[in-house]
Structures are given as structure tokens and as C-alpha cells.
Aurora kinase
Amino acid sequence: MAIASDTQPQEKASTEVSGEEKKRWTLNDFDIGKPLGRGKFGHVYLAREKRSNHIVALKVLFKSQLQQSQVEHQLRREVEIQSHLRHPNILRLYGYFYDQKRVYLILEYAAKGELYKELQKCKYFSERRAATYVASLARALIYCHGKHVIHRDIKPENLLIGAQGELKIADFGWSVHTFNRRQTMCGTLDYLPPEMVESVEHDASVDIWSLGVLCYEFLYGVPPFEAKEHSDTYRRIVQVDLKFPPKPIVSSAAKDLISQMLVKDSAERLPLHKLLDHPWIVQNADPSGIFRG
Ligand code: AMP
């Protein structure tokens, strides 16, 4: 692949072309194609790097909006973390550059788009599909945790699907590189574990909790602690008020796995490597990590 890079956020748009000289990208290096979507801070376009013909997704963020929302620091951290991760289930960030008004992120293109939309379309996933995604995410999170990166914001909106149907974690906006236990409030309430809702110290096991919430949502179509009022969601999370509705029908093996992940005491949550050996995963997940429909 022609675009292989390590970005250094302190420098201006530093990107390496594999084995060659350091490359400083500009907009002229790309042919811009169709819009892929719109985010809070800008737009995402399909693009082709002219020299290599490599297809990428170019995310264009407006500096003014980033400044207004005071998220420059968060973006810097996201770029720094994501550009150093290499895993088939983590969206690559090849590099970045900027001009006076905009910041451009050169991202791996996820041809099948947002997982969130798929889930809306299907309402809920089959056990085979859910298990395949959960196993892929567990592998990606094991990789992240091995590099002392905690994601802290695993939810359907942050997941994309690649051309082969493989899942890609796409948003590292709330992730941290850490050796210590953290004590900051972040993420969306529905996916937050008790220790983050209560703002006590937390560590990599927050991602096990979120993966449990996600597994539930894949199988039931709604997150487990959903409630009309924020305060009720808060209470349900803190009390781990976990209920399995009769419909859709979900196997007891799947419920067993979810119950072992959604545990209040973070030290008691099923470790991710053990999750991969759980009978529900072993029996349902496609070993290739690809859901073929
Ligand atoms: P975001 O600003 O990250 O929320 O992106 C806005 C929308 O653009 C997303 O909801 C996706 O539909 C689309 N998108 C973002 N990144 C990619 C990508 N790497 N590949 C394909 N589509 C993307």
C-alpha cells in the first residue's frame, strides 16, 4: 500500500510514504469523490490519492467549529492514538494535513458504511452476526489494551463496516493512552459502566462493560439500561438493572455471556481473552471475523 504513515500531531501534516521520504500531504494530492457522510464538525468524502490510486475517506473538519466546541485537544489525542494502531478491526488513520480553515484526516475507507444503520435496518442481529462482531471487537480491544489504550466509547455509532463485512472501530475521540486508572467523565450515558457514571476510578475493564452493552443491543435492538429520563438510565446502570425481554428469543448462552460482562465490580468482569473462549462465541462467531449475511 502506498499510503503507509505515522502522523506526528506536533508537526505539520507529516506522513511517510512507505520507505521513501517524509511526505507532507496537501489537498492537491487527492481527487475528491462523492460525499460519504456528514459529522458534527465537517464532511467526509471518498477520495483517491493521485500517485498511488489508493482509495481513502477524507474527513474535512472546520477549525472554527473545533475551536468553538473546544475539542482541538481531543482531536489531537484521537489522531495521535489512532495513527499508531494497526489492527484489521480498527480503522486506519493514514495521516493528516491542514490549511488555514480546515483540518483533513486521511482515513481508511469503510465501503459498507455505518453499523448503526445496519442495526436500524435489521432491528436486531442474528446470534451468528452478533457473535462475529463481538469477537472482532474483543480482539481489537485486546490489541488496544495491550498498547495501554482504553477506548471508552464503544457504541454502534462509532463502528463502520469494511468491504468484506469486517467491523472497524472508527472513533477514538474519547480514548486515552494510559498507565494509570482514570477518573474523568466521558462517553454517552447508555454505554457507561457504573464506575464512570459514579465518577470513580476506572481502567480498561470499562471497555468490557461497553462491549456487554453492545452485545445486548445487537441481540435485542435496544441498549439494556435505556430509559426515558437520564436519571433513570443512571439508576439502572448503577444498580445493574439487567433484564432480558422474552422477545426476540435469545439463547441462554448469549445471556450468560452478557451477564458475565455487565458486572458492577470491574475486577469481576469476564476478561476479553476468556470471552473469546466462551461457548456462545466459539459456536457462533465466524473465525474469519467476517459476517457474510
Ligand atoms: P463522522 O464525522 O466520523 O461522524 O462521519 C460522518 C459520516 O461519514 C459517518 O456517519 C459515515 O457515514 C461516513 N464516514 C465517516 N468515515 C468514513 C469512512 N472511513 N469510510 C466510509 N464512510 C465514512
